[in-house]
Structure formats: structure tokens, C-alpha cells
Design goal:
single chain, about 475 residues, alpha/beta, Aldehyde Dehydrogenase, Chain A, domain 2, 2 domains, seven-stranded mixed beta sheet
């Protein structure tokens, strides 16, 4: 793989500088690869290539763009197992989860974009005006480590579909999946300069992309703090800023829910991906009088999770991605104990059977009160907070009492009841009774969880400008 190179103007190229960064296996805390780190000069080169390619790619016929995406689906399928193994190694996802969820997300979004593009309408007439949707231009893409292929494909696929050119900065913490993806793209016949990739840190390469005068739009996924910095950097050039940011998602277990199933599925969902998901159901609301029952159910789930080597087919939870993430999660677990929440399962430190790696313990807190740090802050680890409510109105009020609004969950055996509550939750995506994930649903947040939407035609729309040609229909 081309770990020490960048992909610019249709070729693998040497970086402008000499800085490098080790890629750490979080299960062993040891380096297993090294990547090059880019500079502003590398971004300049990529931006120039993307700008030069834009005019030609913007007018490539729809069928040709569809053919490119279909070839990318085939290329992804051909290296699917390699992708799963790469993600598992660099971010610690258990190999079974990496195959069934992480690698699958990228392929699923590619296939969904093909379906969306097959039926998408780029033009329509309204009276004498012709409405045309055109590509926004050169797009800078800054993606995270926690669902790497999900987020890369959710940006690259609609950009290709729209006719945009792009510069990708993947996470430097888990960058090798992006190298593999760039190798796939290199073989599908995109015009040179359409897709460019530069590794680097946020303050260096991310900042350069956000500020760059040749970049028309930035699509960013990451923390709210970093998203704010991107927006500030992009403001002087008035570029479009698309953001998918943090979350602290409520999970309301209504009194008429199948209680044991609702609590156990909610607790299990919090442990997926070692809790490193922006839409994780991290705040569970239960009737106050059933707090002890909920705590017992969640405790059983947490204690049954198989934590261990990501390479084992039997492992259900791997390590956190980095020492920094491990320290953050440990600090918030300590804060939960110090502020008086009831520790039901897990707690500080590693599981007893593990003496190295960034492994947390699946942790459950009960009797969590509004205002505690574990109730307010995005932990990004396998830590569930269970909060009691007196009545439905209080549950809804507490669910909405957060600066975030990415996702939410509502559980009830009465579907009409669940629908009424779902309508009152201020979040971009509300899951009712733990449904199968829908790749055609709009994904994005209210409030400080961001702006804009991803997935399917919702994501495609974000990469388009709207033009009105008045008088177009006059003979």
C-alpha cells in the first residue's frame, strides 16, 4: 500500500515535507505502519488538481458517472476482506464487527448511491423557469476514525454522483483504510484530479483545506469543537460548510415498552463499536420506579460482553482507538463515580484479563442525574447512563435538554404512542423500536450536532447548487 504517499492528480506522489506519523495498533499499543504527514504545500497541489479537473468533470454525462460508481462497487467487493482486516487492525474493531458493520457500511453506501443516482432528477421546469442542479465545485472532505469507510464513502460517492472534484483528508489515527480506498479509485478510471487524498493533522492539513480559496465546500465529520474551527476557517471565503458533529443521544423507554428487551437492546447498542459512535444511545431514560430493574438488566448485558483481541472471531468488543481516547473515557468514568452516580457494572481500568491495549470495561451507571458530566458530555466509549423520569413529559424534556441533536431512540409496544413521542424529540434521526438501519434515511443533526444531511439522495443534494434560468421555457 502507498502509506507514505499521497494521491494527487491521478497518481501516487511523494509528499512535500518529511514528517511522518506511526499508526498504532490499539490492541497492542505498538506501531505497525507509518504514514507521511502533509503540509499546506501538499494541499495547494491537490487543490490545483481538483480545480483544473472540475470544469470537465462537471459536465460528464450521468451515465458515465453511474458507470464509475458501479466500477467502484466492484473494486470494493474485490478487496472487501482486506478492507475489514485493515479497519480492524488500525482502529481495534473486532474482525466480525469490521466485516459485518464497518466494511459493510462503505459498500452499502456505494450501492445506495448508485440506486439514488439512477432516479435522481437534476432538472425540472416551473412555469417558464428551468431549475437546474449543478455540482458545487471543489469539495474538501475531513473524515474521522470511528466509522472510517462509512464517512469517507458518504462524502466521496455523492461528490462523484454530483460531478464535484475533491480533496480527502482522512483521520491520521486510522488512515490505512483510506489508502486502500484510494487504490480502488485509482483503478476505476476517474479523470485525473477528480479525487485527491492528502494525509495530515487537523491543525495543518485540515486547516489548510478549510481556508483554501480554491475549495468551494468543506464536508466535515468529527467533534463539535473541531467543527467550529472548520467553520471559522472557512468563513472568510464564504464556502459552504457541511458538518456532522457530536451527539448525546437519548433513548426513551416508555412505560408500555417491552421493558427487558428495550433495556437490554439499548445497553447492547451502547457497547457496539466500543461506544465510539456519534449516534450511540448513551442516555437511557426509564420510569423512576423501575430504575433498579433497568440497572439489573443492563448490568447483565455489560458483564456478558466478550472483550478481547480484535483478531478473534469471538470478540464482541475491542479496544478504544488511542491512548488519548482511553484517557478521556477513564476520566469521565471517574467523574461519574465522583458525582454520585451508581456504578452498576464496569468502572475504571482495563478488564482483569487484559494487561495491555486501550481496553475499557463495559460500564453502566444508574441513578444518573441531569447535569452530571456523564449525562452532559459525549464520552465516546462504552459507558451507559440510566436516568429516571417521573412522567412522559419529563422524559421528553430531559431528552431534549442537550446541546446536541443527532439521533434519538424511542421504545414502546404502542407504535402510535412511539410516533407521537418521536415527533417531539429535537434530533435529526429518531429510531423507533430498534429498527434495521436504513441507508436511504437522512443522517445529520439539529443544534450543535451539525447541519446538512448525508446518505442517499439527501447526501447528493448537499453537493449541488441550484440555478434558476428564468424565461427558459419561453418560445
Amino acid at each position: 500500500m502507498h502509506a507514505r504517499q499521497f494521491y494527487i492528480d491521478g497518481a501516487w506522489v511523494e509528499p512535500a515535507g518529511s514528517a511522518t506519523l506511526d499508526v498504532i495498533d490499539p490492541s497492542t499499543e505498538e506501531a505497525f505502519e507509518t504514514i507521511a504527514l502533509g503540509t499546506r504545500a501538499d494541499v495547494d497541489r491537490a487543490a490545483a488538481a481538483a480545480r483544473a479537473a472540475f470544469d470537465g468533470f462537471a459536465v460528464v454525462p450521468l451515465e458515465e458517472r453511474l458507470a464509475m460508481l458501479r466500477r467502484l462497487v466492484e473494486a470494493y467487493e474485490a478487496r472487501y476482506e482486506e478492507m475489514a482486516q485493515t479497519i480492524s487492525r488500525e482502529m481495534g474493531a473486532p474482525i466480525t464487527f469490521a466485516r459485518e458493520q464497518q466494511a459493510a457500511a462503505g459498500l452499502g453506501h456505494l450501492k445506495q448511491m448508485v440506486k439514488s443516482l439512477e432516479t435522481f432528477s437534476f432538472e425540472e421546469s416551473r412555469g417558464t423557469t428551468r431549475i437546474v442542479k449543478e455540482p458545487v465545485g471543489v469539495v474538501g472532505m475531513i473524515t474521522p476514525w470511528n466509522w472510517p469507510m462509512n464517512q469517507i464513502v458518504c462524502k466521496v460517492a455523492p461528490a462523484i454522483a454530483a460531478g464535484c472534484t475533491m480533496i480527502l483528508k482522512p483521520s491520521e489515527i486510522a488512515p490505512l483504510n483510506a489508502v486502500l480506498f484510494a487504490e480502488m479509485i485509482d483503478g476505476i478510471g476517474l479523470p485525473k484530479g477528480v479525487f485527491n487524498m492528502v494525509h495530515g493533522t487537523g491543525p495543518e492539513v485540515g486547516q489548510a483545506i478549510a481556508e483554501h480559496p480554491e475549495v468551494d465546500m468543506v464536508s466535515f465529520t468529527g467533534s463539535t469543537r473541531a467543527g467550529t474551527a472548520v467553520a471559522i476557517a472557512g468563513a472568510p471565503t464564504v464556502k459552504r460548510i457541511h458538518q456532522e458533529l457530536g451527539g448525546k443521544s437519548p433513548n426513551i423507554i416508555l412505560p408500555d415498552a417491552d421493558f427487558e428487551s428495550a433495556v437490554s437492546q439499548g445497553a447492547s447498542g451502547m457497547m457496539d463499536n466500543t461506544g465510539q459512535s456519534c449516534d450511540a444511545p448513551s442516555r437511557m431514560f426509564v420510569p423512576r420506579e423501575r430504575m433498579a430493574e433497568a440497572a439489573d438488566i443492563a448490568k447483565a448485558v455489560a458483564e456478558a460482553v466478550k472483550v478481547g483481541d480484535p483478531r478473534s472471531e469471538e470478540t464482541e468488543m475491542g479496544p478504544l482507538v488511542s491512548q488519548m481516547q482511553y484517557d478521556k473515557v477513564q476520566g469521565l468514568i471517574d467523574a461519574g463515580i465522583a458525582e454520585g452516580a451508581k456504578l452498576v457494572a464496569g468502572g475504571p481500568g482495563r478488564p482483569e484479563s487484559l494487561n495491555r491495549g486501550y481496553y475499557p470495561r463495559p460500564t453502566i451507571f444508574a441513578d444518573v442525574e441531569p447535569g452530571m458530566r456523564i449525562e452532559r458530555e459525549e464520552i465516546f466509549g462504552p459507558v451507559l447512563s440510566i436516568i429516571g423520569y417521573a412522567d412522559e413529559e419529563q422524559a421528553i424534556r430531559m431528552a431534549n435538554d442537550t446541546p446536541y441533536g443527532l439521533a434519538a431512540y424511542v421504545q414502546s409496544t404502542d407504535i402510535e404512542h412511539a410516533r407521537r413521542v418521536a415527533r417531539r424529540i429535537r434530533a435529526g434521526l429518531v429510531h423507533i423500536n430498534y429498527p434495521s438501519f436504513d441507508l436511504a434515511a437522512p443522517f445529520g443533526g439539529f443544534k450543535q450536532s451539525g447541519n446538512g444531511r448525508e446518505f442517499a439522495d439527501w447526501g447528493l443534494e448537499e453537493f449541488l447548487e441550484t440555478k434558476g434560468m428564468v424565461g427558459y421555457g419561453v418560445a
